[in-house]
Predict the structure.
Amino acid sequence: MVARLSAMRLTGGAVLIAAVLSVVLAMVTPERAQSPSSVAPAPPSSSLQTASQQQEMSTPAPVPSPTSAPPEYRIGTGDVLGITVYDMPELNRTAVVGSQGTLVLSYFQRPIEIDGKTTLQVGQNVASELKQLQILLDPQVMVTVIRVESKPVVVGGSVRSPQVLQEMRPLTLQEALMLAGGPMEGAGNSVLVTRDDGTGSAVSYDLSLKKVLSGTDPKFNIPVNPGDTVQVLPDQNVFVAGDVKRPGAFTLGRGEKLTVSKLMALIGGWEPTAKPGSAVIVRDDANGQRQTVPLDLPKIMARKTPDVTLEANDLVYVPSSTGKAIGLTAVKGVGGAAMLALGYLIIRR
């Protein structure tokens, strides 16, 4: 019995001692009580430096932002490309496609033919060259189009925002005109598209602006090619002023003919105070020299003298028998200040 009690005392003492020791150890080394997965050991300073250097080496050198050229875009002369070689920032480049359609990179001994290729194909070509030179075992190259310069389409004439478009994707004539702001007030009904016919000569297409803008007829809303010049032609007008019933401007469609007799019918003829036998046509010749063509309106209307076909921008002036400067007010809606000045010169003659 005594031996059993002694054993129990010893056992209880051992348990008490073990409990005290566990508390002391927990206080001295509290990190031992935490889960190894929750707190990672701090790396030495040399390890931090190595990691920073590795991150810097793997960050590509900055390359300008690419354009919105689609993946299928075909690269051409003058385009600006961004070359990014992963894990080798010293090989990153911004380069311009040369006049021969080649890409010159300083670490290659010869230019790379890239004209007409996509960015994916050019990247594969650059990677292949790097691998052949054993610069990298498995090079990863990305090519982007930073700026398109090889596919200009000039849109001008009577449009709101004349400009040079770069055709990154196929464009129709209607789309090109809309990108230039559409036709402005005073535009005629003709669009002139001039392009290379493939032999070095230029060919022009005179198309109806109305039908182009409708977009429903592919014979008029034609595809635009790089190198095309698109011009919305202004109204072709014939002007009439002086002692007439209805002075003003009359639109002359391209290809349409307007004679003096038809013009007189449109305006209702001349006033009783007019001198129709002394009427004139004022026009500029091909050299910009002003010419005056005399008209005897009564004889023309009576078919006693040949009718005269009017040209674009012709001005028919009918003087007054009173000798007054009739027409300065009447010309007001004809063509702005330029026509007012022209009318004044005619009256002074």
